Amino acid sequence: MTGVIGPIDGPESFAANFPISRETRDRLVVYAELLGRWQKAINLVAPKTLGDLWQRHMADSAQLWRFRPPESHLWLDLGSGAGFPGLVLAILGAETGETRHTLVESDNRKAAFLREAARVTGIAVDILCMRSENSETRAKVGAVDCVTARALAPLPRLVELAAPYYGPSTLGLFLKGREVAAEIDEAAQTWHFAYELQPSLTDESGRVLLLKALKSKTEE
Q: Model confidence over 155-210: pLDDT tens digits?
């Protein structure tokens, strides 16, 4: 799959672009409906993007699934917010049940939304209402196979947050914008890493950053 896909304006067009079962599609619909209801009380996503939920949020998150390594069992999403990309990936992973997903969100109200979304969709997911950088969070989660994040922080700060969860083969899957090249250059001043940039399927100016072999230069 190459190039920008769309318009994805609902579950049918989403399913036409991503190979999912009817059960998965139904779970995503339940999730979207719940978000619409909670959005009236909590600012879960930017209000102007709510009408474009399936393209801007659902598909944007789901595109990361194609980059998953074969043996990626433990997944961690940092700063999950309304569940993008973490909860979408957990719903996709539920098709096989071979992955375990942890979502970290420090905002109590957003964490409550994530718990309710997991409940109504029937998804087994660990939701931690904690800060990513806390030692307690690091001890509880440990090293994972894949780390994801979306609109959490510029890359220099993002790799600092993600590094404690990296093992030798961990892959970071980060949704980034047009400034990603400058962010990579800045992060490379203090970190060693290997990376690959892939075009976003939902935004012409967006990129998917695949980042591995992360190590601080201060450890040398």
A: 999 999 999 999 999 999 999 999 999 999 999 999 999 999 999 999 999 999 99
- Domains, the chain, ordered by start: 11-219 (3.40.50.150)
Q: In 3-state terms, what secondary structure has residue 197?
A: strand
CA 136 – CA 17 distance, rounded (Å): 39
> Within the chain, what is the greatest distance between any pair of CA atoms?
51
What is the per-residue pLDDT for 6? 75
**Residues 134, 140, 145, 150, Cα dihedral to 10°:** -40
Mention every residue, 6+ apart, whose C-beta is less than 8 A from residue 94. 24, 27, 122, 123, 124
Token reading at 82: 């309304």
154's CB contacts (< 8 A; 6+ apart) are 179, 183, 186
Residue 183, SS3?
helix
DSSP class of residue 203?
A: -
Predicted pLDDT at 164: 97
Rounded to two decimals, what is the model's pTM?
Answer: 0.95
Residue ranges of the chain with per-residue pLDDT less than 50: none
Contact between 168 and 143 under an 8 Å Cβ cutoff? The reply is no
What's the rounded Cα separation, in Å, for the pair 97 and 67?
Answer: 18
What's the burial of 170, exposed, middle or buried (CB within 10 Å: 0-12/13-18/19+)? buried
| Residue 137 near residue 127 (C-beta atoms within 8 A) | no
